[in-house]
Amino acid sequence: MRTAALLLAVLVAVTGCAADKKIVLLAGPPSHPPGEHEHNAGVLLFKKCLASVRGITVETHLNGQWPASLDGAAAIVIYSDGGDWHPALQENRLEQLRALMKKGVGFGCIHYACEPTTEKGNKEFIEWIGGCFETFWSVNPHWDANFTTLPSHPVTRGVKGFQLRDEWYFHMRFREGMKGVTPILSAVPPASTMKRPDGPHSGNPAVREAVNRGDAQHLMWVATREGGGRGFGFTGGHFHKNWGHDDFRKVVLNAILWIAHVDVPAGGVQSTVTADEMEENLDEKGGPKPRRNK
Length: 294
Description:
Elements: H1 2-15, E1 21-27, H2 39-49, E2 56-61, E3 73-79, H3 93-102, E4 106-110, H4 122-129, E5 131-132, E6 143-147, E7 162-166, E8 173-174, E9 181-187, H5 205-213, E10 217-224, E11 230-234, H6 246-259, H7 275-278
Parallel strand pairs: 1-2, 1-3, 3-4, 4-11
Antiparallel strand pairs: 5-8, 6-7, 9-10, 10-11
């Protein structure tokens, strides 16, 4: 550790800057119909959008590939399916991540990747990112979430309120008392989100009571850990086309920087994507491609 610190000090003295921080983006394999759960296209789009940010390098691993080593990572972000298929729950990867979390490495989960299993990963995800999807407690309806107010936080820099339809998970299982957890995107789900019968993902008495009360639900949050580590959870990201929305995209890009302890620009991460770029790297799923946004 002393040798590494000394080498870093020499590098800073000679070049005037510290070494780039490494951000690792992990994409799960294809799933769902075309235009949905486009994990590979999503992380490659994130990498392109982060290219203008100085002081970082972005490493991507696609199709569920787990890197041989995560040493040197400042932050790890997973965009994949969850539950029993979650990449982090395979083999001894939770133990690998646990060692990195103790070192203060950032950890972020997007959409279905916010769901470990209750038996494996639930406790760890709550500790590492502040909360997670818990079956028979959380739900996953498609609905229009309206984010009218945003907190003052580096992750919300340059982000305006917006309304967008997605598979927004809610009634997440958070740390007791929300300790160290800051809600970023919160909205009140309509009664229509409770039309499905009770089930592991569709409904339960507790969430029905919360919707009846009109409780605001936290659909994105950030968290800090003892020792300085940071995490975030973002429950949207079902529809690939939504990454074309500037504020939807920016709040996640900001969060990726924040968990890596990289300063978020005053106006947030600036990026633009074209309709053609939105169709790049889509998985071949054997169905019609999604329509472009008009």
